[in-house]
Amino acid sequence: MDKYVTRQPIKALKEDRIVGYEVLFQKDYNSIYSSSDVAVADTISDFLMQNSDSFADDKLTFVTFTPALLFRNTPKIFDKEKMVIQIEDHVMIHPLAPTIIRKYKAEGYKFAINDFQFSPSYFAMLDFATYVKIDIANKRDPKDRLSLVNIVNTMKGLDKKCIATGVKEKEDYELALEIDADFVEGSYVAEVLAKKVNRMEFLQGNFFQLVVEVSKDEPDIEQIEAIISRDAALSYALLKIVNSAYFALRCRVSSIRQALIIMGISQLKQWVYLLSFNNNNHHDQALEAIMKISFLRANFAMALSDHICDFPILRSEAYMMGMFSTLQFMINAPVDEILAEIPVAQEIKEALTDKTGVCGTLYKLILSYENAEWKNVKSYSDELCLPSGLLAQTYMDCVDAVNEIWNSLIISADQEVEPIEEEKTHA
C-alpha cells in the first residue's frame, strides 16, 4: 500500500480564520481500517510519532484513528489541548469503542464524529463529541438540503459545532452558509481565502528580518536571498523592479541572486526603505493562510524536483513555481498577465497557466496532494517516476520547515521595525 498523508484546512465559515487542520491518510479500507492488520497500524503509528511536531501548530489537529491505533494510545503523542480525535463507523461498530472513547474523554481529549448520519450508532456517540462533521458534497437538491438543515439544527440544539466537509466548489460553500454550518473543509477553502487577498503585501516578520539584514555593516547576500525567496510578494517586487526600465538591462533577470547583485546593497537599502512605508502592520489571517500555502508548495516542489530525472528547470526555479502559484490572488490579476511582467522560465509559465509539460505535471501532483485526491497523486507520481514512498515524508518535512520558519517570522513581527537610515552621500 502506498502511504500518503496531507493536511487540509478547516475554516471558520463566517470569518477568514483557519481553526485547524485534518490529517488525511490515503484510505484503503481493506487494510488501514482493519483492526486485525497490525502491520498497517504499526506503519501509521510510527509515521505519526516521527512527524507529530510537523502537525503541531497553533491550530487544532483533527485525526481519524483506527481502533487499533486508539488501543495503542497513539493520540497521546499529540498535545491533548490541540488534538481532536475523529471517530467514524469503523470505530463505532467496535465492541470496545465506548470504553476506549470514554477513557480519552476523561483525559481531556476532544472528539469529532465523521460524516454524521441519523442512526442509533451515531447518536450513541454524541455525548462524547464536540464537533460533528457533515458531508455536503453533491447534496444540493431540496430533499438533501432539508436533511442537512435538520442535522445542523439538531446538532446546534445539542451544543455541537458543525463542520461542513466536501466543500469543493462555490455552490458547496454557499450551501454550507445556507444550512448555517460553523466551519467548512474542502479544496474550495483555499480559494475562498485567496479571494480575500487582492493586494500586494509582505510578511511582517519576514520584512523585519530583511530590514535587520540589510542594515548590517556587512550584509550577507545569501541570507538576504533566503529571506526574499520565502515571500512571493517580495520576490515578485524585486524581479519586477530590476527588470524595469530604470536598470535598462540588455538581458532580463530571472533569479533572486542575480537581481540582488545587479541592484547592489546601496540601492537595495533604498528599495527596502521605500517598501517600509507601504507595508501595513495589520494582521490578515487570509493573507497568512495563502502565504503559508505558497511557501509549502515552493518547498514541496523543490524537494520533489530533486528526484525527477531530467527535470527541465533548476531546483530554485521549481521553488519559484510553487511560490508564484498564489500570486494572482495577492496581486488580483490573471496569472499569465503577472508572469508576463517578470522573466521566469517558459516551463514555469506553462505549468502555472496551462498545467502542461513536466513542470505542469509536478504542479498538478502538488495540487492533488493538497486536496487528498489520491488516485491523481498516484497517476502523476508514476508519470514523473517518483517513488511512492517518497511523498508522505517529504511533504511532512516541508510542513515542518514551514512551521519552523513561520514561528520565527511571528517572533520577528512582534518586534518593532526601525526605519532604515539612508546612506550618506559623500562629495
What are the salient characteristics of this protein?
8-stranded mixed barrel, alpha/beta, Hypothetical protein af1432, 427 residues, elongated
Structure description:
The structure is a single chain. The chain is elongated. α17 (346-354) packs across α18 (357-370) and α18 packs antiparallel against α19 (374-383). The chain has helices at 38-55, 67-71, 89-92, 97-106, 120-124, 142-157, 170-179, 188-195, 204-214, 221-229, 232-242, 256-278, 285-305, 315-323, 327-331, 335-339, 346-354, 357-370, 374-383, 391-413, and strands at 5-12, 18-25, 60-64, 83-87, 110-113, 131-135, 161-165, 183-185. The chain has 2 domains: 5-195, TIM Barrel; 196-418, Orthogonal Bundle (Hypothetical protein af1432), CATH 1.10.3210. Helix content is 53%, strand content 10%. It has an 8-stranded mixed β-barrel, surrounded by 4 helices. By secondary structure, the chain is an alpha/beta fold. The protein is built from 20 helices and 8 strands.
SSE topology sketch:
Layout: E1 5-12, E2 18-25, H1 38-55, E3 60-64, H2 67-71, E4 83-87, H3 89-92, H4 97-106, E5 110-113, H5 120-124, E6 131-135, H6 142-157, E7 161-165, H7 170-179, E8 183-185, H8 188-195, H9 204-214, H10 221-229, H11 232-242, H12 256-278, H13 285-305, H14 315-323, H15 327-331, H16 335-339, H17 346-354, H18 357-370, H19 374-383, H20 391-413
Parallel strand pairs: 2-3, 3-4, 4-5, 5-6, 6-7, 7-8
Antiparallel strand pairs: 1-2, 1-8
Helix pairs in contact: 1-20, 9-10, 9-12, 9-20, 10-12, 11-12, 13-14, 13-20, 14-17, 17-18, 18-19
